[in-house]
Design brief:
heterodimer, A: 308 residues, mainly alpha, MetI-like fold, 75% helix, B: 281 residues, 14 helices, 76% helix
Chain lengths: 308, 281
């Protein structure tokens, strides 16, 4: 490059570089507020949780004096804490039940609403409405509806001549009742997601298959379900994630009873932390539940990617 | 013509409507019962055989509520906390979303990966450290304590970024040539062009924050800081005997009504917002 060219080019380059730097600075400025908040209120606390889980701490003594336990909290929970195992089992029971029932119902309703149907907007609104209501409020309503002595549902059963049920007071029926209320609360949300997925399936695929004489049932298994796979996996991931963290509904409906049959991991963690001030143990629970959630999500996302 | 062909569609159609009618009845009856029983006397609610309508509809239960819980204060707190948190989420998310979508800067992709990783952290995992921090800040039982930890969400940033990537660069560059500052471009051009995603995120955040329970339960200590869900929870404890079921139902009705109104008014945006967030998930 000759000197003349350098003279001609350099100021332009310098200006361009300054402009790029200014734009870089602007970029940092735009992302800074959110990133700082995320580091302070999510990422930092996440690391803090892992650190505390290796110690014994009651939140009142200074952090610097808390005794190191190593894996002590973890081995206690896994080996010696029957309630931890029980709440873990309950949480998995709740999540599996929730996934199965919600997916079947939400998909059925979405399939019906995706066809030619009158009053579509009304049905859609009716199924979706519970989702926007506060879990605490609807749990209070359902607690009264399901009450074994004077609940509305038993009044209804008695009216049609069926035997009354103990529902939330029974070891066997409490968890199914809890799952039922949860499905009632959220099925409309998953229905909307399925509807959006169904509408993305090109209609001419069905036309072509129908010309070949395929039955409705065959259309569902060979076209709808395979093409709905991404939506299906998304819904399963979301229900699994939210079910494993369930707190509000059982906290109000049953307080974990009867005899811990509906006690969930997050409820047990809340109690361990804020009632008994055992922060090390509570954070160890949080870390383990996070591990489960993280692994499940990764497996499910891997499944999703494999087929794409 | 073979008769079975004519009959089968009719059968399927009636089955479809049967599913919808039974389903909708199950969805809506609890709401109807909640409102009806909130206007009954407690003995009417307990009566067998079951009666559906109050003989003398009354608002006594609602009046009784006022003595049991600080209803007005709860509403005010919920309104204030939910609105400020939602505005905070929209601001931080749209700023960061724009920064990630339309600027080149060293470390950008790493920072965005950090945001995506943060999206994987559920709230219960960070509950204890956040409470500890908030208590060190002296924010327990205060509005900052209720609001500040929630005003940035990784999901919001992700959603905004995905939408803003597709905004036309030419429009932004044209504004730059005209001498607009970067903030003016964000405020006057980017935000107005992003109303669909802002609406979607705004509605979802509002519903989530209004219904939020675990965090306010931990951080709101005295009844002056109660939000509606926390107040309803203590109503459950205060009024657990069968004699005050109508008060519980009245409280639930008042807790639910604001969101049902928001939902009925903005139904279209709800559905669009879920489709937008769900599919791109």
């Amino acid at each position: 490059m000759t000197t003349a060219e350098q003279v001609l080019v350099r100021p332009g380059r310098a200006r361009a570089k300054r402009r790029v730097n200014r734009r870089s600075l602007a970029g940092y400025a735009f992302v800074a507020p959110a990133l700082i908040l995320l580091v302070v209120f999510a990422l930092g606390p996440f690391l803090f949780t892992i650190w505390v889980s290796l110690h014994s701490w009651n939140m009142l003594t200074p952090l610097t004096t808390m005794p190191f336990e190593g894996a002590g909290n973890y081995s206690y929970l896994l080996n010696d804490d029957a309630l931890f195992r029980e709440t873990f089992g309950n949480t998995v029971y709740f999540a599996v039940g929730n996934v199965v029932v919600s997916v079947v119902l939400a998909l059925s309703i979405a399939l019906v609403l995706n066809g030619p149907i009158r009053l579509r907007a009304f049905w859609r609104a009716a199924f979706f409405m519970p989702y926007v209501t506060a879990p605490v409020a609807i749990a209070i309503v359902w607690r009264n509806i399901l009450d074994s002595n004077w609940g509305m549902l038993n009044g209804l059963l008695a009216r049609v001549g069926l035997p009354e049920q103990p529902f939330l007071d029974s070891l066997n029926q409490a968890m199914p009742s809890l799952i039922g209320v949860s499905v009632w609360h959220e099925v409309g949300y998953y229905m909307i997601i399925f509807l959006a997925g169904l509408q993305a399936i090109p209609y001419d695929l069905y036309e072509a298959a129908k010309l070949d004489g395929a039955s409705t049932w065959r259309l569902f298994w060979t076209i709808t379900l395979p093409l709905l796979r991404p939506t299906m996996l998304f819904v399963v991931v979301v229900i699994t994630l939210s079910s494993l963290q369930v707190f509000d509904l059982p906290f109000i409906l049953t307080q974990g009873g009867p005899v811990n049959s509906t006690n969930t991991l997050v409820m047990y963690m809340y109690e361990t932390a804020f009632k008994f001030l055992r922060m090390g143990r509570a954070t160890a629970m949080a870390v383990m539940l996070f591990g489960v959630i993280f692994t499940m999500t990764m497996i499910q996302l891997r499944l999703l990617r494999e087929r794409e | 013509m073979n008769t079975s062909y004519a009959i089968r569609p009719a059968v399927t159609t009636s089955l479809k409507y049967l599913l919808l009618i039974v389903g909708a009845a199950i969805m809506l009856t609890p709401f109807a019962w909640m409102i009806l029983s909130s206007m009954m006397t407690s003995s009417e609610i307990l009566a067998r055989p079951l009666t559906w309508f109050p003989a003398h509809p009354s608002f006594d239960a609602y009046r009784g509520l006022r003595d049991a819980i600080p209803l007005g204060r709860m509403y005010l707190n919920s309104m204030f906390v939910t609105t400020s948190t939602t505005i905070g989420i929209l601001l931080t998310s749209s700023l960061a979303g724009y920064g990630f979508a339309k600027f080149q800067f060293p470390g950008r992709d790493v920072l965005f990966l950090i945001v995506l990783a943060t999206m994987m952290i559920p709230f219960f995992v960070v509950l204890i450290p956040i409470f500890y921090m908030v208590s060190k800040f002296g924010w327990v039982d205060s509005y900052p304590g209720l609001i500040v930890p929630n005003i940035a969400t990784a999901f919001g940033i992700f959603l905004m970024r995905q939408y803003m990537v597709s905004l036309p660069d030419e429009v932004l560059d044209a504004a730059r040539v005209d001498g607009a500052s970067e903030f003016e471009i964000y405020w006057r051009i980017v935000l107005p062009l992003s109303t669909p995603v802002i609406g979607a995120l705004g509605i979802l955040a509002f519903v989530f924050q209004w219904n939020n329970f675990l965090w306010p339960l931990v951080v709101a200590r005295t009844d002056t800081m109660w939000t509606v869900p926390v107040g309803l929870n203590s109503l459950r404890v205060y009024a657990s005997s069968a004699q005050v079921i109508n008060m519980q139902m009245a409280g639930a009705t008042l807790g639910i009504i604001p969101l049902v109104i928001v939902f009925l008014a903005l139904q279209r945006y709800f559905v669009r917002g879920i489709a937008l967030t769900g599919i791109k998930g």
